[in-house]
């Protein structure tokens, strides 16, 4: 299920029919390849892998990220070998006969565990056994685990494989080696088929097979060699997996366990072995995966190491119990449910532990996305500390250089950069002003804009606090994006011009959260001038609304979604200042641009009638569209730059 409660699946396509009109279709043709498909949830209910279906809907080309730090849907599909999507309306099943498949076992396991434990405990146990990609785990639970650095607990990989082999070899320890080998192989194959052929699972299973072969041949397995062989085989099978983040993290974490755990355990020799191992395993995995995480996300989970140590016993109990429950549910569903019921308290404790760490102040720290060059230098230092004796004795030098590479550039950029970024956020101007370490955010949009546009951008920029926030409701959505931002980012001063009777509930919730964060709340009145850093802001009109700003000797004007009558009255009254930068809705362009004649005009959609574009061409204004060009960025010593164009220019070099 998607976050918008639609069904989603991959579809291998063999036939394409273009709909011509209501009475008929254009001639069909044979095609090949895969599609990413979304359909209404009820249309997806009951579908299973291998089924033959026909989906009616609209084909579309996936869009690239429109904002810095945002999820790049086009790149994600491209790494999966998919280059188009289908927004489906209706699904017709072409073959009603239900074929045998591993999906039946997976469905039976999940149903058995959920029936006794309920939601979210049931799906969580199933996800820890089968992996979150094989289970419809609620997104709020998934997001909570990711935020505190426990995403690996929901990913089927090495931990589950080790448990399976440990259980199998323990139960068959009195049998012959050949029997142990056979039973172990069957268990690994069954686990692989149940979880799906994911890169991280395949890597773990291949290494598991290497261990079983070593057992059969009375040899000692070389873990590093088996890891390299597993990675090579997987990349020969599917070279695109080298770009898969799950594969990269799984490989690096396993490498860390192989080469770094012994060194850490040795230095923790003064502790009991069990305690030393409990600390060494998550610490080694963190050391080797953190540079990649900072390159991709730019966020450091502050309490990740502590939480991993505290949660390992619970995760182990739940995983072992989940496996036993899964096996029992395949034999007798009622027995599987009863066994799963024993896991209620450990699962509940784990959820409460994750929730507690999520509510701690500063539970994550944004350092900003490090460059690929920085990441490669840090990994080079890690390799030196692993392979070279001089560096092994001076590991603290490698640590110091790595921390310097991460924090000094971020600190320097944050304290010297002045940049204005207008994010692509639909019909509302969402502006971030980075003023030499001080950050101003103007408008928040709806919940989706707050979570998927503003937060990722601020994290990528290494922003951990908003100094000034201004709420003016351009879209009439009650500025609900603030409710997504406030629990995650403290705001020092909040200026509100959007509070009214229509959004009293949202406004009350915002003020309550501000009070909890000990922030300053100030209503923004019409005509009131406010100094926010080196920027001067004034609310010209609150109902429409209209905002005026002066940023580095450049005048900016944001004009809301005016009705034609209101617009004509404003123009007639000559109450609008003449800015150098204008933001307005597309339908207001033909009236406002000739009247105000700004140097730069920014609007949302590029879907404008040709005759209007021709008229605007006679006015000397640079016309930019956030819907087409993505985020628009400006620095005092530079020009206005479109994010999508800048990304394309950088990629064209290669």
UniProtKB/TrEMBL annotation:
TM segment ranges: 144-171, 200-217, 224-241, 247-264, 271-290, 296-315, 322-345, 365-388, 395-412
Gene3D superfamilies: Ribonuclease Z/Hydroxyacylglutathione hydrolase-like
Domain DUF4131: 6-92
GO cellular component: plasma membrane
Domain ComEC/Rec2-related protein: 129-391
First-listed, main subcellular location of the protein, grouped into a coarse class: membrane
Subcellular location: Cell membrane
Topology with respect to the bilayer: Multi-pass membrane protein
Keyword set includes Cell membrane: yes
Keyword Endoplasmic reticulum: no
UniProt keyword terms in alphabetical order: Cell membrane, Membrane, Transmembrane, Transmembrane helix
NCBIfam families named in the record: ComEC_N-term
This protein's name: Competence protein
Taxonomic source organism: Brunnivagina elsteri CCALA 953
Lineage per the UniProt record: Bacteria, Bacillati, Cyanobacteriota, Cyanophyceae, Nostocales
């Amino acid at each position: 299920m998607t976050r918008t409660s639609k069904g989603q699946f991959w579809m291998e396509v063999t036939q394409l029919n273009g709909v011509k009109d209501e009475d008929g279709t254009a001639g069909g043709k044979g095609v090949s390849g895969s599609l990413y498909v979304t359909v209404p949830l009820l249309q997806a209910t009951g579908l299973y892998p291998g089924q033959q279906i026909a989906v009616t809907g609209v084909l579309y080309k996936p869009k690239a990220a429109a904002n810095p730090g945002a999820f790049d849907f086009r790149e994600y599909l491209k790494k999966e070998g998919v280059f188009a999507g289908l927004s489906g309306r209706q699904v017709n099943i072409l073959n009603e006969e239900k074929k045998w498949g591993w999906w039946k076992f997976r469905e039976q396991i999940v149903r058995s565990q959920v029936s006794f434990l309920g939601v979210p405990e049931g799906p969580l146990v199933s996800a820890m056994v089968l992996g979150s990609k094989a289970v419809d785990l609620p997104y709020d639970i998934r997001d909570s685990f990711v935020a505190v650095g426990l995403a690996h607990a929901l990913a089927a990989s090495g931990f589950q494989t080790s448990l399976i082999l440990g259980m199998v070899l323990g139960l068959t320890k009195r049998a012959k080696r050949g029997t142990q080998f056979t039973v172990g192989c069957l268990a690994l194959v069954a686990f692989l088929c149940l979880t799906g052929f994911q890169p991280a699972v395949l890597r773990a299973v291949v290494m598991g097979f290497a261990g079983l072969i070593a057992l059969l041949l009375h040899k000692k397995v070389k873990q590093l060699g088996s890891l390299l062989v597993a990675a090579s085989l997987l990349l020969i099978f599917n070279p695109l997996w080298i770009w898969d983040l799950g594969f990269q993290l799984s490989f690096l974490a396993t490498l860390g366990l192989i080469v770094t755990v012994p060194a850490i355990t040795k230095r923790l020799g003064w502790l009991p072995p069990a305690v030393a191992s409990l600390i060494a395993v998550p610490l080694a995995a963190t050391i080797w995966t953190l540079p990649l995480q900072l390159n991709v996300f730019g966020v450091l989970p502050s309490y990740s190491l502590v939480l991993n140590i505290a949660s390992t016993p619970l995760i182990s109990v739940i995983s072992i119990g989940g496996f036993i429950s899964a096996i029992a549910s395949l034999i007798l569903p009622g027995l599987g449910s009863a066994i799963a019921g024993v896991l209620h308290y450990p699962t509940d404790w784990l959820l409460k532990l994750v929730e507690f760490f999520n509510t701690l102040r500063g539970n994550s720290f944004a350092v900003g996305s490090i460059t690929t060059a920085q990441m490669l230098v840090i990994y080079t230092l890690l390799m030196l500390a692993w392979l070279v004796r001089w560096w092994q004795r001076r590991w603290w030098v490698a640590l110091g250089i790595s921390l310097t590479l991460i924090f000094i550039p971020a600190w320097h950029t944050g304290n010297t950069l002045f940049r204005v970024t207008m994010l692509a956020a639909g019909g509302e101007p969402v502006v971030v002003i980075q003023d030499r370490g001080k950050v101003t955010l103007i408008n928040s949009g709806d919940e989706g804009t707050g979570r998927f546009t503003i937060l990722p951008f601020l994290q990528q920029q290494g922003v951990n606090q908003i100094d000034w926030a201004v709420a003016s409701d351009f879209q009439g959505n009650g500025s609900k994006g603030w409710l997504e931002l406030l629990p995650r980012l403290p705001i020092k001063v909040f200026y509100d011009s959007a509070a009214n009777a229509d959004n009293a509930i949202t406004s009350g919730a915002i003020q309550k959260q501000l009070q909890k964060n000990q922030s300053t709340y100030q209503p923004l009145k019409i005509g009131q001038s406010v100094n926010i850093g080196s920027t001067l802001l004034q609310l010209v009109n609150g109902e429409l609304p209209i905002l005026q700003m002066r940023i580095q000797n450049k005048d900016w004007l944001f004009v809301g979604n005016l009705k034609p009558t209101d617009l004509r009255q404003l123009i007639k009254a000559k109450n609008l200042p003449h800015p150098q930068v204008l933001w307005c809705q597309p339908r207001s362009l033909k009236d406002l641009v000739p009247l105000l004649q700004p140097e730069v005009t920014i609007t949302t959609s590029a879907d404008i009638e040709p005759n209007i574009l021709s008229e605007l061409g006679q006015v000397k204004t640079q016309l930019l569209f956030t819907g087409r060009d993505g985020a628009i960025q400006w620095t005092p010593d530079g020009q206005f730059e479109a994010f999508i164009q800048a990304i394309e220019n950088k990629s064209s070099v290669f």
